[in-house]
Model the fold of this input.
Amino acid sequence: MRKFRVLPAALALVTLLAACGDGTSTDTAAPNDNQTTATSTAPAERTAVTVYLLDGGRLAPVTRDVTGPLAPAALRALIAGPTKADGDLESDVPDITKVNGIDVDGDTAVVDVSPEFVSFSDATTMRTRTAQVVFTVLGQLHTVSKVQIVLDGAASPTMPAVGAADFADLAP
Done:
């Protein structure tokens, strides 16, 4: 294995270049007391998404305003659960669940969540919980028709890819 040694002069040059900026500026005038610089960034745009809560065991669509990539933001809004404005609506998705990521593989969205997603559930709760995620994700990713839920990156054989038709009895 070959080791490389950074020479002090090279390190000084890198430090000097970093202090000078990226070199893309064409403004060479020195600033004066009358100039101001805008350093703030525009606020993130909010987008309305639909998440699916539960009303008497059936899925109920509600709107949430989110920022960032839509599918993960919608899932985080779902995990946050009902608000006071939602009245008696509920959620079976544990509010301690974390969204690790969402990848699209062909017609399937692979939703990676923390293991808390499966905590404290019986078969009925797990089914409604999964339906909430499936409908919420499919509402954001119109190019997919199925959702597979994985826990911390490892596919679970008990959680195959499923679509809206698998939950037709729970559909709004």
Q: What stands out?
A: Residues 44 and 67 are 6 Å apart (CA to CA). Confidence is low (pLDDT under 50) at residues 1-40. The chain has three helices and six strands. The first strand starts at residue 47 and ends at 55.
